[in-house]
Specification:
There is one protein chain. The protein is of the alpha/beta class and 137 residues long. The protein has a single domain, classed as 3-Layer(aba) Sandwich (Rossmann fold). It is 37% helix and 27% strand. A 5-stranded parallel sheet has the order 4-3-5-6-7, with helices on both faces.
Amino acid sequence: MRVLISEEGGEKFACSMKTLIIDDSPISRRLLRLILKANNISTLEAANGRQALKSLELNRDLDCVFIDWCMPQMSGYEFIKRVKADERFKKVKLIMVTACDMEEDIEKIWAFGIDDILHKPISRKLVEDKLKFHGLN
């Protein structure tokens, strides 16, 4: 386990992994950030896929990215497509966060090559279960 020192909100804490949260909703980002922080996981945030690509370039030590399905400027699909095309990011876990529950949409999301889906509304238990399943906690 590596230990990172993260400064979030002016405080420092040891964390075992580093994630990126991509969501155009500040409330959704905050909720996920609080759940991850409670599990000693450092977070970066982006409001859209374009910002997220820049964050990924600057932070190549990311372990996991939580990606909203529908965002302005660059969709979750387009973000995933670009990340999957770049060998430098092949070890980063990609988890789609979505309110979609239509079977057709879910099949399309899996076809993108993501590692998992986290269905909204999210809860601490759902997030912790996904992290545990992927060995990320």
